[in-house]
Description:
By secondary structure, the chain is an alpha+beta fold. It has helices at residues 3-16, 20-34, 39-54, 64-80, 84-101, 104-121, 124-141, 144-160, 164-180, 184-200, 204-221, 224-240, 244-261, 264-280, 284-300, 304-320, 324-377, 383-456, 466-476, 478-484, 501-518, 550-553, 573-584, and strands at residues 462-465, 487-489, 496-499, 524-532, 536-542, 589-592, 602-608. The chain is built from 23 helices and seven strands.
Amino acid sequence: xxxxxLIPRLEEKLAQVTDRHQRIDLINQxxxxxxxxxxxxxxxxxxxxxxxxxxxxxRSQPHPRGMAESLHILCRCEGLLGNFAKSISHGxxxxxxxxxxxxxxxxxxxxNAIGITYLYMGNYPQALTTLLxxxxxxxxxxxxxxxxxxxxxxxxxxFEIGEPEQALKYLLPGLDLARQHDCMNVQCELLNNACNxxxxxxxxxxxxxxxxxxxxxxxxxxxxxxxxxxxNSIGDVYQARGEAAxxxxxxxxxxxxxxxxxxxxxxxxxxxxxxxxxxxxxQPEQALDYFQRALAVAEEINAPQKIYECHRELAEVYKxxxxxxxxxxxxxxxxAVASLVFNSRADNRLKSLQVMHQxxxxxxxxxMSRLRNVELQKQIEEREQLIxxxxxxxxxVAHDLRSPLASVTMSIHMLHxxxxxxxxxxxxxxxxxxxxxxxxxxIIIRELLVLASVRQKEVTLVVVNMGExxxxxxxxxxxxxxxxxxxxxQPDDWPLVFGYPVWIEEIWVNYISNALKYGGTPPKxxxxxxxxxxxxxxxxxxxxxxxxxxxxxxxxFASFSRLNRTDNQGYGLGLSIVQRIATxxxxxxxxxxxxxAGEGSTFYFTLPGMIEQ
Length: 613
C-alpha cells in the first residue's frame, strides 16, 4: 500500500482511538510499513510515536514497547538515509528497552537493524557479529520469516567482502525458505542479492533472471528503496555484458526513484555507476559531473567508503583530461581517506574484540560463581541435574565464542584482501594457518551447541521424507564430492519415517563427513536402509576405509573421545550428537566393522516408520 493510501487510513483509525498505547502502536505500525517505501515519512511518524510515548499523560502507565519500536524504526530509517551515528544510537537505545521487557522478537529485529547499518558503514566484523546475534534469537523463537531475512543479510555481507559463492550458500536456501512461508518482502531482497552474486561469478543469465524477478517483486510490494536497488543490480548485469545503453537506462531510472525519496546512500552509489559507464564509453566530461555529484552526497552523509571511491574516480578522469594538478589533488585525498577507512576499520575491530572479551570474561566469572553456589547449596542434587547445568554452561560458552570468532575470521579475510600482497609468501602462509584454525574452532563450537540443544529441546515427531533429507545432507558436501571424485550410491526410493527433520539431517551429515574423511582413496560411499521388525527402519552409511577395531568401536559414541586416525581433526562430538539425537527420537545407533584395511565400516541409526494401512 502506498503512502497516499496509508496516511489517510492511519488518520481515520487515530480519530476512532482514545487509548494512547493503541495510538502509539498504530503510528509505529504505519511507520514500519512505510520505512522502505517512503523513508522520510516513516521517520517523521516514528518520531511522532516516540514523542507520544514520552508525554506526561502516559507516564503513570508507560508503554516501553511502543517507545522501543519507534526507536527501532528510527534506527532503520536513519541507516537508509545515511545518518549512521543516529542509526546506531537509536538502535542501542531500543535494544536496551527490548531486553528489559524480555521482548525477544524486538531484540532480534533491532540486532538486525544495527547489523545492517554496520554493513552500510563498511564495518564488516561488527556487522557479522550483530547479524549472528539476530540469527540466534530468531532460531530460538523459530521465526521463519526473520530467519530467511538473516540468511539474506549474511549472504549480502559475504558478497560485499568478495565471496559470491559463499553468499549464494545463504541466499538460495533463504529464498526457498521465504517462498515456502510466503514472505514476499524477504523474497525481493534475496532475489536482488542473488542477482548480484550470480553476476559476480559471471552467470549473467541467472543474474538477469533473478534481477527481473526482484524488480517485479519490489513493485508488487511498493518498495521504492528496493526498486532503486534492484534497478542498479540489473544495470550492473547489463554493464558486465557490455550493454552500456541498457545499463544507463536502469541507473537513471534508479536515480529518478532515489532522489525524491531521499535515499542518499543509493543516490551516491547510482551516481558512481553512471559516472563509471560514462568514463568507460569515452565521455570523461560527463563522467566528471556525476562523480562530483556523488562526492557531494557522500560527504553530506559522511560515508568514508564512498568518499574515497569518488576521489579515486575523479583522479582517474582528471588524469585522462590531462589536468594533472587536480588529478594529484584527488589522488592525495583518495589516499588520505583510504588510510582513514582502513585504520578506522582496524580500530573498530580491535575495540569490538576488547569489549566482547571483557563482557565474556564477566559472564564467565558470574556463571562460575553461580555454579559454585549451586554446588554448596545442593550437594545432594542428582547427577542428571548436574549434567544439565554443565551442558547449559557449555552451550552458553560456545554461543559466546561465536561472536569473537566471527570477528577474527572476518578480520583474517579483510587482512588477506587488503594487505595480502604486502605480507609475502610466509605471511600469507601464516594467515592461511590462522584461517584453518578458525574454521576448526567454528566446527567445534557448532558441535558443542548442537550437543547441548539436542538434550534441552523437546520436539514433536512428524512424517519425514528421508529422500529429501539425504539430498540436503549431500548438498553440504557438494563441492568436496566434486573435487575428490568420490563415488556415492543410494537407493532410488527412500521410506517415510517419523522424526525431526533438522536432527535427522545432522545424523546424515556426521556419518557422510566421517565416510569422506576416513574412506579409501578415492572414497566409495554407499547409503542405504533395511526394514526391521516392528515397522522400524535401519539407515546406514558404508565406507571403504581401513575399518575400526572392536576396542575403538567401544569409544566411538562417547563425548570428547578421539580415535588415533590419520586425519586427527575430530573431537568425538559428532558421533555423540548422533547418539543423543537417535535416543531422543526413539532409535539406536551403532557401527559394524571387522577392522580390516579396505573393508570399511558401516554406521547406522534406526527410526520408526509409517504404519502401513
